[in-house]
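Note to self: keep these together.
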Amino acid sequence: MSDTATQPQLEHAPGSFCWIELATTDGEAAKKFYTELFGWTSQDSPVGPDMVYTMLSLNGKHVGALYQKGEQMKQVPTHWASYISVTSADGPVCNVTAGPPDRDVYAVADVVTVVATVADRGVIATHADPL
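Structure:
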C-alpha cells in the first residue's frame, strides 16, 4: 500500500482554514466562556502529567481545541493558532521559509516547529507570521 493510500482524506479544501487552537493561561475559564458563547461542547483528554487538551465540538464535529499553557510556555502570549489545509506540507513549508520561486519580493516566516506528524491527522509545520 502506498503512503498516499494510508494518509487521511482532506476534509477542507487546500488553502482553507481547517483547525483552531487556543493556548491560554486559564483553561477552565476559556472552556466555560467559549462553550457558552458558541454552544460548543468540550471533551478533556490528559496529554501528560500536568496538561489537558480540550477538544471543542459543534453538532458532534470537532471544530478546534484549547489547552492551558504550562510552565515552559509561560512567556508565550495567550493566542489562537489557525491552521490551513494543504495537500502536501513540503511545498508550503519551502515557500514560507524561502519564498515563492516566482516572486522577487516576499516576506519570510520564522519556522517555529519543523514538520511533525500529528496523530492520524497528517503532518504539521508551524510558522510565525512575518508581517
